[in-house]
Amino acid sequence: MHIDDGEQISGDQGIGLWGCVDVYDQRELFEDLDSVRVVELSRLGGQTGFSGIESVRKSTGISLRRLMRPGLAAVDLGDALCHALEQKTGRSLGEFSRVFLCHSHTDPQQCHRLANQLTDRLALPENLIQAFNHGCCGFLKLLQDAAMHIEAGDESIALLSVETPETWHDGSDRLFCGLVSAGATAVVVERGRGLPLSVVRADDFQIPRERRPNPDPLFRKDNADVFTFRGEPIHRTVMRMNAEPVFLNGIELMLTNLRAAMASMDLKPGQRVVVLPHQPSAKLLKALVAAAKNEFPGVEFLNNLDQYGNTISSSVPTILCRLPQVLAANGLRPLREGDHLVLLAAGICMEEIADHMTAGHACLTYTAQDLRHAQGLSLNGDLTYDQVESFGAPELFELIVPATAERMQQVT
Fold first, then answer.
1. Which domain covers residue 31, as residue numbers?
2. pLDDT given for residue 120 in this prediction
């Protein structure tokens, strides 16, 4: 089930999102990983692991995760995704001005290898696909870069998220084995079509020592003898997480971004605000919602963990692709014209894993009629954690910082 993309219109219109698609229903791509198997994985190597499936459920909020079927690779998910996008939009991939790809991995070259493999398999123009290793906030970073290019004159940009976390995590690590799941999504960013985008920003934030309960790195790479998600021993480089400071700072960063998003809205009586957050874990989402409800009691939050898990950069666009379905699963009524959507994420900063995190948000308006011009699109500025927290939300959105030459160079 997919979101209504709205009507195509011409003229001097704002930037919108449409063509949302995923590949989860293509069962030939995936096999399921249930909680019984997660318990078994977590005990490999003589570890204590989870006590049982109820412990997994309480910790993760997930019943079902996806692995790539044996013999498949990230390029197969990407290939299926590209064909699904072409079918959804009626356009070949080569017709887009650019294609941005997020594929996260402990090896930063894997995203470029995937881009090259897709280029060869689909016979695409060289350098059409520009690859990034962004992690959990990857979709928002891609969206921000796409918005900059649309503002600069590009016609349409496809955003691809292809995530295979089973290839760069330890299958016996209980911090990840019950959480992460394979996923692949695509969205089109274009002027004058789709859900209007009014604000987008995503930044890397240094987490100062006083905000870290222990001195260990937030994340670190570990080249070690580990287990695959099928329980097979393997030697590879995996990601390790320092859970407590990541948890605490992840919540604070998402709250800060939510405050800024709320301050940017022209909220009319009767309009709803629905938040589509990154899906890190049940515990973090529960803590985020509890804290946010104190400030914004009327805001609604979507939880899509149960059947999809944490799909890294695919988690937010997965909800966007399946919005009516996810609303119903959360017991919420369908959206109406003028309701507001907030895309919200925080997580690992893949460029500086030890002491930085990435966070961001985007604001969309739900409309199936004439799309309004997205006035004053707010783009990225290079702000520190303390700078963002020091701003009141209104001041933050008066600070509209043009893209720097360095950042534009990364995506040209």
1. 16-193
2. 98
72 domain-assigned: yes
C-alpha separations of 231 from 38, 39, 40, 69, 237 in Å: 10, 11, 9, 14, 16
- Residue 385's CATH number: 3.40.47.10
Q: What is the mean pLDDT of residues 123-151?
A: 97
Torsions phi, psi for 255 (to 5 deg): -60, -45
Q: Is 248 inside any structural domain?
A: yes
Angstrom distance (rounded) from CA 145 to CA 385? 21
In 3-state terms, what secondary structure has residue 223?
A: strand
Q: For residue 409, what pLDDT band results from cuts at 50, 70 and 90?
A: very low
At residue 379, what is the residue type?
Answer: L
CA 310 to chain centre: 9
Does one domain contain both 128 and 151? yes
* Helix-helix angle 110-122:74-89, to 10 degrees: 50
Question: Are residue 188 and residue 222 in the same domain, yes or no?
Answer: no
pLDDT, position 267: 93
Burial of 31 (0-12, 13-18, 19+ CB in 10 A): middle
Q: Are residues 390 and 330 in the same domain?
A: yes
- The answer to whether residue 283 scores a pLDDT higher than 60 is yes
Strands of 127-218 (E only): list them.
129-132, 156-163, 183-191, 195-206
End-to-end CA distance of the chain: 34
| Element at 266 (helix H, strand E) | none
pTM: 0.87
Q: Read off the pLDDT band of 119 (50, 70, 90).
A: very high
Beta strands in 168-310 (DSSP E): 183-191, 195-206, 219-227, 233-241, 273-277, 300-301
Does some domain include residue 2?
no
Whether residue 83 is contained in a domain is answered as yes
My answer on whether 156 and 219 are in the same domain is: no
User: What digits encode the pLDDT tens for the residues 181-240?
Assistant: 999 999 999 999 999 999 999 999 999 999 999 999 999 999 999 999 999 999 999 999
Of 193, 227, 257, which residue constitutes the final position of a domain? Answer: 193
